[in-house]
């Protein structure tokens, strides 16, 4: 398949392709806050946030994050609890934990300056080939490929590449193609233009080919195969997980919250007590009460179920029955188990599903 890519690449007028693409980007690029300068730290933060997240969602998070932590040193010295709280609602929390760990290394090992060599930057925690290429090309002007989903979609259509983009090995084919195509004079705009083109013109469905600045170079456009590319196998079926959760309050009006483990899904975030329910056993309430007694030493009374929340991850789907409850005895607090009032709760980072629970309780609605 790589031979086919190289053969198709030989037919491409690379210099004209570069000119058409970069000229279009200079005029049509969106006004995004991380494009105000080429600060490598800001590029790093933005690219980390943009992984699997829409631009419109990222913008306010990016602005708040940079306002709070304007430099690598500021972020490296920040308390993890506060960093997670600032990220709250953005999802994929391993991104920010890796970023936090990596900037500490940059601050200590490189004097707070993001390294500008591929080997050094790639050694940082959470920095994969795409992020490394994006930082090096956008911030430092180095001709390194930055291959994400948008770029693979654009290039698969331009060069008629039919390899399955869901396979890790396929990325190497696209990286090789970009190395041949990238502008040596302006790799920053070249890579950003490919990303931008995939985001607003060469979209997954119904691409706006008549508005595309490089359609004359696009093999898929001329062959009528834009709707068939890129080739991507479907993800495995999501696993359904049934949970019961309870927002518990003691006699003083304090809420019981628990911190998740340091590793795994939603690591180090706080949550209301919950457990997976065995649907083959009767008595969901009994299972929940028994779990909370064993796990936290709390005797509770469930008052009512207030609704159900569905929360989707890439590999599983949660169905959560949400209850209200009252704590009937004294609960011993621990570092990962706290009793807090409603105001104090605002200091802790919760996953979206558990943010919905407290709103559900306070508003008396379900989602």
Note down, in words, how this protein is organized.
The chain has 367 residues and is α+β, with helices and mostly antiparallel strands. It is built from 16 helices and seven strands. Strand 5 and strand 6 form a beta hairpin. The strands form two sheets. Strands 4-1-6-5 form a four-stranded mixed beta sheet, sandwiched between helices. It folds into two domains: 2-228, Hypothetical protein, domain 2 (Endonuclease III, domain 1); 239-363, Nucleoside Triphosphate Pyrophosphohydrolase (Alpha-Beta Complex), CATH 3.90.79.10. The chain is 45% helix and 14% strand.
Topology of this structure?
Elements (H helix, E strand, L loop, with lengths): L1 H9 L3 H15 L11 H11 L4 H14 L3 H5 L3 H8 L6 H16 L8 H5 L6 H10 L10 H10 L9 H14 L5 H14 L18 H5 L15 E11 L5 E5 L10 E2 L2 E3 L7 H13 L3 E13 L3 E12 L9 E4 L1 H4 L6 H12 L4
Parallel strand pairs: 1-6
Antiparallel strand pairs: 1-4, 2-3, 2-7, 5-6
Helix pairs in contact: 1-11, 2-12, 3-4, 3-9, 9-12, 10-11, 10-12
Count the domains: 2
Number of helices: 16
CATH architecture verdict of the largest domain:
Orthogonal Bundle
Task: Give the C-level CATH assignment of the largest domain.
Answer: Mainly Alpha
Main beta sheet strand tally, sense and closure: 4 strands, mixed
Q: Compute the number of strand runs.
A: 7
The radius of gyration is 24 Å
How does the helix and strand content classify structurally?
A: alpha+beta
Gross geometry: elongated
User: Which strand order does the major sheet show?
Assistant: 4-1-6-5
End-to-end distance, in Å? 47 Å
Q: Pick out the low-confidence regions.
A: none
Beta-strand proportion: 5-15%
Helix proportion: 40-55%
CATH topology of the largest domain: Endonuclease III, domain 1
Give the CATH H-level superfamily of the largest domain.
Hypothetical protein, domain 2
SSE run: HHHHHHHHHHHHHEEEEHEEEHH
Mean pLDDT: 94
């Amino acid at each position: 398949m790589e031979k086919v890519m190289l053969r198709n690449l030989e037919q491409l007028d690379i210099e004209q392709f570069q000119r058409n693409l970069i000229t279009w980007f200079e005029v049509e690029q969106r006004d995004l806050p991380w494009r105000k300068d080429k600060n490598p730290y800001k590029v790093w933060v933005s690219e980390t946030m943009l992984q699997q997240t829409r631009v419109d969602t990222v913008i306010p998070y990016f602005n708040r994050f940079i306002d709070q932590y304007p430099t690598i040193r500021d972020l490296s010295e920040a308390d993890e609890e506060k960093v997670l709280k600032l990220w709250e609602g953005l999802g994929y929390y391993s991104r920010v934990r890796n970023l936090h760990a990596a900037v500490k290394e940059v601050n200590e090992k490189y004097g707070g300056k993001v390294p500008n060599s591929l080997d050094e930057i790639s050694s940082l925690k959470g920095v994969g080939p795409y992020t490394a290429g994006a930082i090096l090309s956008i911030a430092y002007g180095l001709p390194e490929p930055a291959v994400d989903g948008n770029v693979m979609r654009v290039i698969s259509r331009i060069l008629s590449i039919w390899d399955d983009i869901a396979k890790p090995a396929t990325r190497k084919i696209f990286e090789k193609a970009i190395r041949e195509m990238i502008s040596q004079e302006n790799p920053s705009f070249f890579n950003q233009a490919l990303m931008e083109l995939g985001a607003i013109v060469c979209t997954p469905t119904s691409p706006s080919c008549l508005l595309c600045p490089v359609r004359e170079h696009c093999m898929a456009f001329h062959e009528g195969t834009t709707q068939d590319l890129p080739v991507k196998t479907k993800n495995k079926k999501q696993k359904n997980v049934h949970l019961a959760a309870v927002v518990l309050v003691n006699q003083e009006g304090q809420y019981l919250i628990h911190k998740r483990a340091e590793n795994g899904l939603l690591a180090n975030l706080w949550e209301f007590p919950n457990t997976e329910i065995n649907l083959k056993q009767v008595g969901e309430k009994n299972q929940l009460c028994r779990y909370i007694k064993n796990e936290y030493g709390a005797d509770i009374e469930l008052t009512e179920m207030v609704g159900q929340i569905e929360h989707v991850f890439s590999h599983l789907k949660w169905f959560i029955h949400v209850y209200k409850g009252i704590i009937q005895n004294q609960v011993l607090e621990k570092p990962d188990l706290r009793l807090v009032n409603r105001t104090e709760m605002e200091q802790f980072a919760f996953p979206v599903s558990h943010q919905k629970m407290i709103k559900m309780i306070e508003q008396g609605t379900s989602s």
